[in-house]
Each structure stands twice: as C-alpha cells, then as structure tokens.
Automatic annotation (TrEMBL), chain A:
Domain Prenyltransferase alpha-alpha toroid: 5-324
GO MF annotation list: CAAX-protein geranylgeranyltransferase activity; metal ion binding
Cofactor needs: Zn(2+)
Family: Belongs to the protein prenyltransferase subunit beta family.
Protein name in UniProt: Geranylgeranyl transferase type-1 subunit beta
Cleaved signal peptide residues: none
Alphabetical list of InterPro entries matching this protein: PGGT1B-like (IPR045089), Prenyltrans (IPR001330), Terpenoid_cyclase/PrenylTrfase (IPR008930)
UniProtKB keywords: Metal-binding, Prenyltransferase, Repeat, Transferase, Zinc
Keyword Zinc among record annotations: yes
TrEMBL record, chain B:
Enzyme class, first EC level, given as a word: transferase
Named cofactor requirement(s): Mg(2+)
Pfam families referenced in this protein's UniProt entry, alphabetically: PPTA (PF01239)
Keyword Metal-binding: no
InterPro entries in the record: Prenyl_trans_a
Record keyword Magnesium present: yes
Origin species: Coemansia thaxteri
Top-rank taxon: Eukaryota
Designated name of the protein: Protein farnesyltransferase/geranylgeranyltransferase type-1 subunit alpha
Family named by the database record: Belongs to the protein prenyltransferase subunit alpha family.
SUPFAM superfamilies referenced in this protein's UniProt entry, alphabetically: Protein prenylyltransferase
Keyword vocabulary terms for this entry: Magnesium, Prenyltransferase, Repeat, Transferase
A single Gene Ontology CC term: CAAX-protein geranylgeranyltransferase complex
Length: 339, 331
C-alpha cells in the first residue's frame, strides 16, 4: 500500500490554525498573512479546503485579507509602501502621519494574493496598478528586490515574491526581468546551488526562489549549469531533504528543494520512499508536521511538508504548482503564469 | 504602561483586527499593551528616547516586526544615539533572535555609520585589523559561530565585513581554523572559495596552477581525514569546473587515484558515493577533449562509475545515476 499522510488530522490542524495561533507564535505576528496563506495551502494540498472552510467564512476571510491592503493616496511619497502588510499589527490605515509605520511588504503581498485566490476571490479589489508601481520602486540596481522601503534587506526571496505577484496579476511592468535574471545568475555557487547573494553558501530556500523566479519569467535557460543545479538539489536527499550540504534534514525542504527538482524536470529521478519516511517521522500526534521528528508542528512546516509529500504522490493528492504554491488547476488559469 | 507617568500623554491605538480575524494570535496582555502604545508613537512619528526604548521592547518580543526596525534606525539617526551603544543592544538581544534577517541588516547599517568603509580602505590592512571597532565586530561573529558553526547569517555578515573593510589577508587563516575544528562545516568550505577568489567575479578571477595545486593537496588531505564528507569533494570539483576544467583530469584525477590505491585509506575512499560521483564528473569533462576512440573508453569508465553508484554506493539516487548512465551512452 502506498504511504499515506494522516490527512484528517492535518486538515484539523490547519483548520485550527485559521481559528487561532498560540501565544508562542507571537514572533510570527508580522508575517500573519503568510500563515493564513500556508494554512489554506495545507488544506488545499490535502484536498480539504472546501470541506473545512464554509462559503460564508471564506467571505469573512477575504474581508480580513483586504483589510490588510495598503492603498496609499496616489502620491509619489506613498507609492513604495503599497501592497499588503503582514497583518493588523501594523497601522492604522487612516491615522498615519508616518507612512512608514503602515508599510506593505512584497512577501505579504504575495501571500495575500495566493490566499485570495485559494478562497475563490477574483482579485477585483486588489489595486494591481499600485502594487506593480511599488515593485518598480523596490527593485534595486543589482536586479534584486527589497521587501519594503527603508531596509537594506534584499535577496532572492523578494525576487521570487515580485515574480509571483507579477505572474498572478498578469502584469510584469513592475519587474525589470533582464536585471532580475542577471541578479539570480550572480547568485550561482560553483557547487551548482544558488545563494542569497554572490559568494554565499548554497541554500535550498534560495535555490527554490531563484529557480522558481526564472521559471515564472520563462528564463530557466539562463541558469549557468542547469544539470548541475538539478544535481545539487537531488543530492540534498538522504534520510529526508536537507537545505544545505552536511546539515540535518528538515521537513520544509521537501518543498523548497522538492519543488526545485520538479521545476527542473527531475520528478522521475527522485526516490519517494526517502521523502515519505522522513515526513512521516515529522508528523505529530495531534496533527501538523514539525521541522524535525519529536518537535512541535507549525503551519509552515506542515503545509510545505504536505505539498512536498504530494510531489511524490501526484495520484493521491491534488496536484500543486511547484512555481506558485497554488493548486495546479488554479495556477494554470492565471493570465501569464508559465506552467 | 497606562499607569506610568512617562506615557500619560500618549493615547494608545488598539489593534483593529476586524470582526472576523484570521489566524489571530493569543497575545499576552503585556505584548498587546506595548504594541498599542507602539502603534501610537509610530503613527505620530515621535522621535524620543522613550520611543527608542519601546521599539527595543517590541523588537525583542517580535523581531520580525519589519516597520519597527525601520523606525528604530530612524530614531538612532535622529536622536544621535551612540552607535557603539546601539551595537551593544543588538548583541544583547541577538542570542534570542540569531536567525532573524533584520537584526543582521541593522548591524550592517550601524557599522557603516560608525566606520565608513571608504575611509577605512585608505589605511594599511594591519592597522585596520587593530581598529577596535573592527576587532569587536569580528569577535561578535566569532561568538555566534562558536555557538552555531553553520549560522548562515553570521557567515554572510562576515563576508560583508571582510569585503567592506578589505580584511582579506587574514581570512584564509580563519577558514583553516574553522575547517580544522569541523571538517564537515560546509559554511567554512564555502568561505574558502570566497577567501581564495577574494570576491572577484567568476570571469575576473584567475586561478593559477600553483594555487590550484595547493587546493587539490589541501582537499586530498581533508578527504583522508573523513572520506565520506561531501564538502571537500564538492568544493574542489566546483572550483576546478569553474576556473580550471582541464585540471580536473590532468591533476585532480591522478590525486584521487593515488588516494584510492593507498594501502591504508583506499577502502574508506572507494566506498563513498563522492569518490564515484567525482569520477563521473571528471571523465565526462575529459571526454569533451578526446578523440573518438579515447572518448568512448573514458565514457565507458564514467558509465561504470554510474553503475557502481546506482547499485552500491548511492542507492537513494539510483534513478538519477541510471539516467546519467543513459545520457553518457546517448551522447
């Protein structure tokens, strides 16, 4: 019999996360939107979203998400702050003399758009023009992206968010694609992996962001050595996927690395039993998947673990897009998303 | 806070989470109160010592609060906060948030304010190494790496410091120490490439024969210590593939063969997947420059190595090695 995840238990876990997170997760407060997205992704990847979230409640969730949209006032001063913020921790929307206090963030914008699509929203109330304008202001000379104004943070995570946002909105005018591709290429490590910045260590999360960004831009051909990048990703699989050379396995890399393998065409080269065995060790008694065996679950590892498991069992679970973290059927309906 | 004289004049702004919040977090009363006041001071853009202190409390409770970091940086500048004191504050909270990106970026921004890289670059390097601020920064990184030798942020930050202040002369010695402490520390092996190339772009860096030979000898030495260790194998293959591909078969191959036939260590080396997969890479590269007859022979060796990997030494990647073998047949 094919290995199976405890689908019911995990569905209840994601459902519980949508209803509330424990006090220990206060450190996720600024990224609540991402945990909303991941809880919905988890349910969708298990094929339980419709069943666990009733239509009326979906409409309420859609309202909460739109409540996080930073609309700006059309002025140049506000333009870079537009998009979605990470949660209601920021704000308020109306009282701000200090526009920087209530800032959107490309990661939250990406999460919000995915969450809205998962909830069946048509994005009609999304101010796409403002979002695309903000992206244009957040792209750096290097081609990389900052997540929001006022920070020196910039790395492939935000390039990925910018690409995913553009693909979802079907508007690439906020991204200088040649510059973004050049930045990604500069992040290739000689070992075949991809990095946060030139000369940094290859890392499964950045491999995903770089490879998925190139795929969304239709530029996978720009990878300096695609075969070697695929090899690097496949090489991460031992007793589960690890994120870096000589590091212990971690359930989230079943997605980060597993999805990169899918995008690079390596699906048939993976031994699913090695992926399964580790993820099943990370399943927890009351639902959810932890980072490691015997640890506490969290929505990120749970959702990414389920999606990673699904890549190995495409006939048993709903097919998910490796480039957008949406159900494949939904991703395929998007205007310009490549695959 | 509502009872404190200091905050009497501030009207807190409660969080507006709407009628039906999604993923609400069960905040402590303390967190809720401090963020209510924090929203108020941030909304007005207040520049004050109390705002600075409050931003510190909020960041310590929730280090991913991205606008709090932006606000704090502005407060540091506008209040003329002593940068060394601010660096000390970052160090103080760093133990609890060592994997937080913003903390490390804040530190970089502070260092740039304290020590202008352009000015420092004018000094001789031994003088730079004696600069108390640079020494303190390197010691801070050392402490983090001592606790977690593979901390991604600490290594990234170290690259930034070395590059910004031009501290190249000592970097290889640091890398050696780290590799000697843990020969499996891939972060240290990665730093070796950074130190060797001194941050030069792939097409600008010239790997001399002498330097490449030294790296091969170094790697062979470390493989002897722990043959089943991906890091040195992947380091040397990556280095030569990128900068001196002919040396793969002219120099690295004989060294590996010598290692594999060494009476004492042979068994340990030839039973690792890394030995066999290195052979696949090397033979494949060599085949590109040979005439037809020799090419077939070398490809045959590569196919045999793939077979050994699939059947015996790397079963988890059996499908991959069979695919590689097939590709070597088809070419």
């Amino acid at each position: 019999m094919a290995p199976q995840l405890a689908v019911d238990r995990h569905a209840r876990y994601f459902r519980m996360c949508l209803s509330g997170l424990p006090q220990q997760m206060t450190s996720l407060d600024a990224a609540r939107m991402t945990f909303v997205q991941l809880s919905l992704v988890g349910l969708a990847a298990l094929g339980r979203l419709d069943e666990m979230v009733a239509a009326g409640e979906r409409a309420q969730m859609v309202e909460w998400i739109y409540g996080q949209q930073v609309l700006g006032d059309g002025s140049a001063d506000c333009a870079a702050y537009c998009g979605f913020r990470g949660g209601s921790l920021f704000g308020p929307h109306d009282l701000c003399d200090n526009v920087a206090a209530n800032s959107g963030n490309v990661a939250a914008t990406y999460s919000a758009l995915c969450a809205l699509l998962l909830l069946g929203d048509d994005l009609a109330r999304v101010d796409g023009a403002a979002i695309v304008r903000a992206l244009r202001l957040l792209q750096q000379e290097s081609g990389c992206f900052a997540p929001h104004p006022g920070t020196t943070e910039r790395d492939p995570r935000f390039v990925y968010c910018a690409c995913a946002i553009s693909a979802i909105l079907g508007d690439w005018s906020g991204v200088d694609r040649d510059a973004a591709v050049a930045y990604i290429v500069s992040c290739s490590n000689p070992d075949g992996g991809m990095t946060q910045a030139p000369f940094h260590e290859s890392h499964g999360g950045h491999v995903y962001c770089c490879v998925a960004s190139l795929a969304l831009m239709g530029r996978l051909d720009a990878l300096p050595d695609r075969a070697r990048t695929l090899r690097w990703a496949l090489q991460r699989l031992g007793a589960g996927y690890q994120g870096r050379v000589n590091k212990p396995p971690d359930s989230c890399y079943a997605f980060w690395v597993g999805a990169a393998v899918e995008i690079l065409g390596g699906h048939d080269l993976v031994d699913p039993s090695a992926v399964d065995a580790f993820l099943m060790q990370c399943e927890t008694r009351f639902g959810g998947i932890a980072k490691w065996p015997d640890a506490h679950p969290d929505p990120l590892h749970a959702a990414l673990g389920v999606v990673g498991f699904g890549f190995c069992h495409p006939d048993d679970l709903p097919r998910m897009s490796p480039t957008l973290l949406l159900p494949a059927a939904l991703a395929e309906r998007l205007p310009t998303a490549n695959r | 806070m509502s009872q404190q004289e200091e905050w009497k004049d501030v009207v807190p702004i409660p969080q507006d989470d709407g009628k039906n919040p999604v993923c609400p977090i069960a905040y402590t009363d303390e967190y809720r109160e401090m963020t209510d006041y924090f929203r108020a001071v941030m909304a007005s853009g207040e520049v004050s010592q109390r705002a600075l202190k409050l931003s510190g409390r909020v960041i310590d409770a929730n280090a991913a609060h991205y606008t709090a970091w932006v606000y704090r940086k502005k407060l540091v500048l506008d209040l003329g906060v002593d940068i060394s004191e601010e660096l000390a504050w970052v160090a103080e909270i760093s133990g609890r948030h060592i994997k937080n990106y913003q903390l490390w970026h804040h530190r970089e921004a502070l260092l740039e304010l304290l020590l202008d890289p352009k000015q420092v670059a004018l000094e001789p390097q031994d003088q730079r190494m004696r600069n108390p601020d640079i020494r303190r920064e390197l010691q801070f990184i050392d402490r983090v790496i001592d606790q977690d030798s593979k901390n991604f942020h600490a290594w990234s930050h170290r690259q930034w410091v070395v590059r910004a202040y031009g501290l190249w002369d000592q970097e290889m010695a640091f890398v050696d120490t780290q590799i000697n402490q843990d020969v499996r520390n891939n972060s240290a092996w990665n730093q070796r490439y950074f130190a060797l190339t001194r941050n030069q772009a792939a097409d600008a860096f010239v790997l001399t024969k002498e330097a490449a030979d030294a790296e091969i000898a170094y790697v062979i030495d470390k493989i002897k210590l722990a043959p089943n260790n991906e890091s040195p194998w992947s380091y040397i293959l990556g280095l030569l593939l990128r900068h001196a591909p002919a040396m793969l078969y002219e120099d690295l191959l004989p060294s590996i063969n010598a290692l594999a036939s060494d009476k004492n260590g042979a068994l340990a080396v030839v039973s690792t997947p890394f030995y066999w997969s290195a052979l696949v890479d090397i033979y494949e590269k060599q085949a590109e420059v040979l005439d037809a007859e020799q090419r077939d022979a070398v490809k045959g060796l590569a196919r045999e190595a793939c077979e050994s990997l699939a059947e015996q030494y790397d079963p988890v990647r059996a499908k991959y090695w069979k695919y590689r073998k097939q590709e070597l047949t088809a070419q």
